């Protein structure tokens, strides 16, 4: 069939619109760092929560934080509310629809740790706060953005443990045995760093697309050496979520393509395999580790899907999200496919 004949029968305005959409694809494929935080859902009537904002400052005074704390309006359980801590809080507030929050049968206290900005993301700050230092404690340039620094995870963990959590505990009765930490990308890396540094700090750790390639796998190797120690992780529940491979049809800018190539090279050098890592963790005594794969979502889209599915599972939403059965091998784990959350 002659394609030129087909095109000739398409009205000119539609042809122009299609061309405009195709030209817009490269920009749409990259994260829009100008997007503003949507806090309107926090204050929607009858959402079942009362939200307040707590300010914090880093020890060196260079980073300012805005922590959104949501307290359920329902009475606390006898043991106190469960608590879900989540990083990149500015990017999560817009996900908290009334329907999602009202679906929770066991609503947790929500602690969304963001930055003191009206933007959804603060790339430079999160690149520092969420990434581990070198073994000698020194910071390093970011692999993908050399103008940014990595290596502030220890200081950020201290802020979380010694300042943020104590203030949250003053706001409501909390269940100290049911507390979870969630993070995405560098945030997922911080979740694993916290698991290594203070495994008893939380009982559930959820890492979505953790940057296992970080520093060509230097942290991953330290983490793997550590968790093989006897009783290092007893009683912990761990989940690793992974997005699908970038589609060949996805249009990327040249800069985005170069960053993707660097990330892939670092991952190959690190031998980073989230599925295999989850399998090795699950094989440890008294440890529960699960792997979830979202094949139809890219790295950026996984942030929202992983967080909302985590909230549904942790808050026992109705209907319940897909249950993850035990997975004896990565070959079978790869078949555990979770659809994109619609909440």
TrEMBL record:
UniProt KW keywords: Hydrolase, Signal
Enzyme Commission number: 3.1.-.-
A GO MF term: hydrolase activity, acting on ester bonds
InterPro entries: AB_hydrolase_fold, Esterase-like, Siderophore_Hydrolase_D
Signal peptide per UniProt: 1-29
Family: Belongs to the esterase D family.
Entry protein name: Esterase
Organism superkingdom: Bacteria
Top class in the EC scheme: hydrolase
Membrane-spanning parts: none
């Amino acid at each position: 069939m002659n394609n030129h004949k087909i095109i000739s029968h398409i009205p000119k305005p539609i042809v122009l619109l299609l061309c405009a959409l195709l030209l817009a694809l490269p920009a749409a494929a990259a994260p829009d760092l100008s997007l503003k935080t949507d806090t309107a859902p926090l204050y929607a009537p009858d959402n079942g929560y009362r939200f307040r904002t707590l300010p914090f400052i880093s020890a060196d005074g260079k980073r300012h934080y805005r922590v959104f704390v949501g307290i359920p309006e329902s009475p606390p359980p006898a043991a106190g509310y469960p608590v879900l801590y989540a990083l990149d809080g500015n990017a999560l507030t817009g996900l908290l629809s009334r329907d999602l929050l009202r679906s929770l049968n066991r609503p947790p206290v929500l602690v969304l740790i963001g930055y003191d900005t009206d933007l959804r993301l603060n790339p430079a700050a999160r690149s520092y706060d969420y990434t581990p230092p070198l073994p000698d404690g020194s910071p390093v340039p970011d692999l993908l953005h050399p103008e940014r620094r990595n290596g502030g995870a220890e200081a950020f963990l201290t802020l979380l443990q010694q300042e943020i959590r104590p203030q949250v505990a003053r706001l409501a009765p909390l269940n100290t045995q049911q507390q979870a930490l969630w993070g995405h990308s560098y945030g997922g890396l911080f979740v694993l760093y916290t698991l290594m540094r203070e495994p008893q700090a939380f009982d559930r750790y959820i890492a979505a697309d953790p940057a296992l390639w970080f520093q060509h796998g230097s942290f991953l190797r330290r983490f793997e050496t550590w968790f093989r120690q006897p009783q290092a992780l007893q009683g912990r529940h761990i989940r690793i979520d992974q997005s699908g491979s970038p589609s060949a049809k996805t249009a990327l800018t040249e800069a985005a393509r170069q960053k993707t190539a660097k990330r892939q090279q670092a991952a190959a050098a690190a031998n980073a395999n989230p599925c295999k890592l989850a399998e090795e963790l699950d094989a440890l005594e008294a440890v529960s580790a699960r792997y979830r794969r979202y094949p139809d979502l890219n790295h950026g889209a996984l942030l929202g899907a992983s967080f909302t599915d985590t909230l549904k599972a942790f808050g026992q939403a109705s209907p319940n999200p897909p249950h993850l059965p035990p997975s004896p091998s990565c070959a079978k784990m790869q078949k555990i496919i979770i659809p994109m959350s619609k909440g």
